[in-house]
Amino acid sequence: MRGTLENKVRAAVAAAAVVMCAGAVVAYDVGPGPDASPAFAEPVRNATIVIDPGGVRKGYATPLVTVSGGGTVTVVNLDSFDHTVTSVAKGPDGLPVFDVRIRAGTSETVPGTALLAAGAWEFYCKLHPSMRGTLTVEGSGGGVEPERPSFDQPLVVPRTDRGADVRLVMRQARVRTRADGPRTSMWTYDGSYPGPTIRRRGGQGTEVTVVNRLPKGAGSMSTHLHGDHHASRYDGQPTSYLIRRGASRTYDYPLTVGGEPEPGSFFWYHDHRMDRTARNNWRGLQGMFIVTDPPQRGLRLPRGNRDVPLMISERSFRADNQLTDPFAHGPEMADHHGSMAWTGPHAPPDDATIGDTVLVNGREAPYLRVSATRYRLRLLNSSPFSSYNFALSDGRPFLQIGTGSGLLPRAVVRTHVLLGPAQRADVLVDFHGATGQRLVLSSDPAAPGTSGDDARRTPVMEFRVGDPAPDTSRLPARLPSPELVSPVPSKVTRTWTFGLSGDDHHGSYWSINGRAFDPDRVDHRARLGTVERWRFRNTSDLTHYVHIHAEQWRTLRRDGRTPPPWEQGLEDTWRLEPGEEVEVAARFTDHTGPFMIHCHMLDHEDHGMMARFDVVD
Ligand code: C2O
Ligand code: CU
Fold first, then answer.
1. Tens of pLDDT along 296-344?
2. Residue 18: how many CB atoms within 10 A of its CB?
């Protein structure tokens, strides 16, 4: 990596020198140029946005810039990574009002700013969303106003399949995503996006047969039931037990752990093909799987249509409502294992599949009519890359009762719920007192006192609150949560370091313990029946989301401290900020064979940030 990065930095400095010599840019001086003569009443004020080396961590060097209506905005990128300047606000076409990518060591003019109406326009970097700023347009400005989402299509809850034998045909289908215009062609499980929601009680063995009828070129697939405990051969391995085109595979999920029914959980299924997971998920291979608790021991939670699973994901669309293809010009990939060669503009760490448009259960900006009573919302972030810091527009709190992996020991009141890729939260929302109102669920990164300033800023969906309705559900203070493993070893069994690596020969790649994924290399062996204590460290400049297959884990420490109350249940996916350390423990039960640990930002997973551990007898 050293060689690559140093070369990049040298190139950046050289390019910056060219920019500087041109004399057009005075870094940090975002006011009028020195020769703006007072003889002219209203000098047009241009603006410059500067990105210094280390921008990923430090953000824009000029987060607040001002431009006169009709002025130009230039971005100078002195960093060794690419960045974007992208407006939070969208135009009538649903795309950001302005959006420009500035390659490392170059400068660009932001198109379209001359037309902006006067006011404050927030912008961010799509590749590193914690970089944020505000562009203030002064004076008369242009006619372009930000579009407000109108929430004009109803939320759709996917069809529920409750049978012991489920059959899912993977096929291309045209599905409704946006309110207007043509349908979108996607790769689906059984003709819908998301696929059918499978709903089974813990302990009810379930066989899911997946048939591959995807178009030519899609290749072999592998379906992973995220969070579930099952045999290695049914885990949706990245390179083995694949589903070839025209063929099918039956996955056997007993929904038991150590002979006991699996606790009620909110899992999901998605494709897991090596090197292709981001693409296959982007195209639509995602669905939800709810495990319900055996007799809900006195728990009276909202049920039926007041128990709403919400899969939140994002995509970018062309004007004809078809998905863009962020993978068309992807990094070059060596086809032999263990020596990935990532070159080009989308090489790590500049690989981030981010969509402009947020979808809830496959629809853009939907609304849901609710009664003024209590609901259970199961939130899943199935985005390839982005995090969301969920909040309701009137500050109404969520009562979080579970993770995606079972109930929490105690319900937690939260105004914001931060979920990264693959994370879930089980929350209750009481719409009491909101009759006649429209409440917006949005992602609000700037919330004081919460981490997650790298989350997206975006509206997500709307709740249209109707009349109060009778409600027999109860707010439980203590919950029958699954038992946590105890005692746990005091010494760490295995440390997994998430970082960025590379060399001149292989290019840059995401790594665990310095290495890119190799399906034939066993990175750790754990003995069946034993309890291990694992530690994750993040030595990179970006947040990662660590996911472990096979078992559900207890979170022991986050940065040396007791984890927050919402992390005191079982977990399979953790947020890991730069410099952070998390320690977790689990017992390896029932199943031997290879399993995966990886970052669930799918570009990172595809670009090396995955390792294999084997459970052995
Ligand atoms: Cu949700 Cu290994 O994946
Ligand atoms: Cu990552």
1. 567 889 999 999 999 999 999 998 999 999 887 554 444 434 445 677 6
2. 11
Q: Which residues of 371-404 are buried (b: 16+ CB within 10 A; e: fewer)?
A: bbbbbbbbbbbbbbbbbbbbbbeeebbbbbbbbb
Mean pLDDT, rounded, for 364-376 = 97
CB 305 within 8 A of CB 373: no
Report CA(597)–ligand 2 centroid distance (Å): 12
Q: Which residues contact 559 (CB under 8 A, 6 or more apart)?
A: 580, 581, 582
User: In this structure, are residues 278 and 315 in contact, taking their beta carbons and an 8 Å threshold?
Assistant: no
The predicted-structure confidence for 106-160, as pLDDT tens digits, reads as follows 999 999 888 888 888 889 888 887 788 889 888 777 777 767 778 999 999 999 9
DSSP 8-state secondary structure symbol assigned to residue 270: E
Distance of CA 252 to the CA centre of its chain: 28
CB distance 604 to ligand 1 below 6 Å: no
Among residues 530, 545, 520, the alpha carbon closest in space to that of 237 is found at 520
Nearest ligand 1 atom to alpha carbon 268? 1
Q: Provide the 3-class DSSP secondary structure of residue 256.
A: strand
- For residues 511 and 348, give the distance between their C-alpha atoms in angstroms, rounded to a whole number: 10
Residue 32 has pLDDT above 60, yes or no: no
Is the distance from the beta carbon of residue 549 to the nearest atom of ligand 1 less than 6 Å? yes
- Beta 83-87 vs 99-102: how paired, if at all? antiparallel
Q: Quote the pLDDT of residue 140.
A: 73
> Mind spelling out the 3-state secondary structure of 340-371?
CCECCCCCCCCCCCCCCEEEECCEECEEEEEC
Closest CA to 71 of 99, 112, 100: 112
How many other CB atoms are found less than 10 A from the CB of residue 456? 24
Give the integer Cα–Cα distance in Å for 323 and 33: 43
Residue with tokens 């004076």: 139
Q: Which ligand is nearest to the CA of 573?
A: 1
Task: Determine if ligand 1 sits within 6 Å of the CB of residue 602.
Answer: no
Q: What is the pLDDT of residue 345?
A: 67
Report how far Cα 25 is from the mean position of its chain's Cα atoms.
36
Residue-wise pLDDT tens digits, 194-219: 999 999 999 999 999 999 999 999 99
Residue 429's Cβ-side half-sphere holds a number of Cα atoms within 13 Å equal to: 30
Distances (CA, A) of 102 to 75, 85, 131: 7, 8, 14
**Predicted confidence band at 56 (pLDDT cuts at 50, 70, 90)?**
confident
pLDDT in tens, 394-452: 999 999 999 999 999 999 999 999 999 999 999 999 999 999 999 999 998 766 556 66
